[in-house]
Write a structure and sequence with these properties.
single chain; alpha+beta; 4-stranded antiparallel sheet; two-stranded antiparallel sheet; 15 helices; 6 strands; 9% strand
Length: 376
């Protein structure tokens, strides 16, 4: 049985000729090595100019409220297939899936400005705001271009709102520096939520290992306080309301006791029914004030118990630890990848580069590099 071939004896599918590729690589290995080495040097200069980054993470398992047993059963079955019904069936407006949105909000980020951090070498202790503004390492090209960017910024930018150093930033109307600081802080903080288990993973990056760990732990605590404040907001308002009512009832009761005592002392030997009736009336008012005071005290205690009931519990699955190794940049991996990319790019160029001009004119005695290597 005969096979169909082209004029030059090759298959129409143009299969890859491994032998030709090997011959081209052998014939031009010096050039490939030079290009790969040059690209590796450039990659090394670039990656060693980047400041090191350290990443710390903390895992948190929050308590998710369920309105009924049926909802809990449906939620368990839905979690088996990767779904979460807490957002649609629950009566809680803040559920784990929107925790990343909370961490990325300006209102939450502004509250992180005053977090106290310290470097591992002990050279700095201060707020996150001051650390990100004045104690960051930059690349050498960034330091060279910074004066030019500042000059262009002054020429092109319009005067905006400024904030005094002793005032707290307002999330409703941030200054330009505060807004840029929020953007920088948002890039350093990442929050992921497992839809099946509702476990929250908060990871932070910083140029210092201790700073990243302290920032992760502080954000975890701030997030817990935020969720607790939301969950207990109504119960706390009710508690304050009953505290105020109890205080008013106590004042009325004390006033009734004082009025009854004064009248009883001044009419101790009175025998007229008018005085006796007035004393009984004051005694009844005192007893009524005591009953109201007693009820308000009970309501206050119940409100305190309600606050405790509404307070969610958080389980720290993995606490924040100081990282021992930097997470970025991957220096060795980047250099090796650049070397391999240089080899492959050079080999690809040698295989697909056009033939010399003499070959294009019909001179078959001057083949291209790939053909010559294949013939060899």
């Amino acid at each position: 049985m005969s096979t169909t071939t082209t004029e030059k004896g090759t298959s129409p599918q143009n299969p890859i000729d491994v032998g030709m590729i090997v011959n081209v690589a052998r014939a031009n290995w010096r050039l490939m090595a030079k290009v790969a080495a040059a690209l590796s040097v450039v990659a090394a200069i670039y990656v060693y100019s980047l400041p090191r980054g350290y990443e710390a993470s903390v895992m948190l398992a929050p308590e998710v409220s369920a309105s009924s047993g049926l909802q809990g059963s449906l939620g368990s079955m839905a979690s088996m297939v990767g779904l979460d019904l807490g957002a649609t069936m629950g009566d809680d407006a803040i559920y784990p899936e929107i925790y990343p949105d909370i961490l990325g909000s300006r209102q939450f980020l502004v509250e992180l400005f005053d977090i106290t951090v310290a470097t591992a070498d002990g050279s700095y202790t201060g707020t996150v705001q001051d650390y990100l503004t004045h104690h960051q390492q930059h690349t050498w090209w960034d330091n060279m271009l910074r004066p030019l960017r500042k000059a262009l910024k002054k020429l092109t930018s319009k005067p905006g709102r400024t904030r005094a150093a002793d005032t707290k930033p307002d999330p409703f109307w941030l200054s330009k520096d505060d807004d840029e600081l929020c953007e920088a802080l948002s890039d350093l903080v990442n929050c992921n939520v497992d839809k099946k288990t509702s476990v929250i993973t908060i990871s932070t990056r910083a140029q210092d290992a201790l700073v990243s760990a302290m920032l992760a732990d502080s954000i975890r605590q701030r997030l817990q306080d935020y969720i607790i404040a939301y969950r207990t907001a109504k119960a706390v308002n009710d508690l304050h309301f009953f505290e105020r009512l109890r205080q008013e009832a106590k004042e009325k009761y004390d006033s009734a006791v004082a009025a009854y005592s004064r009248y009883a002392d001044s009419h101790k030997d009175a025998i007229l029914q008018t005085y006796i009736s007035e004393r009984d009336n004051l005694e009844n008012e005192m007893q009524l004030a005591f009953n109201v005071y007693n009820q308000m005290s009970q309501q206050e205690q119940m409100a305190r118990a309600k606050v405790q009931e509404k307070t969610p519990a958080f389980t720290v699955v993995q606490c924040a630890t100081v990282p021992q190794k930097p997470s970025s940049p991957k220096r060795v991996r980047t250099i090796v990848a650049a070397f391999v990319a240089g080899l492959l790019a050079t080999l690809a160029y040698l295989l697909v580069r056009p033939a010399p001009k003499a070959a294009l004119k019909g001179d078959d005695d001057i083949p291209c590099a790939a053909t010559a290597a294949a013939q060899a």
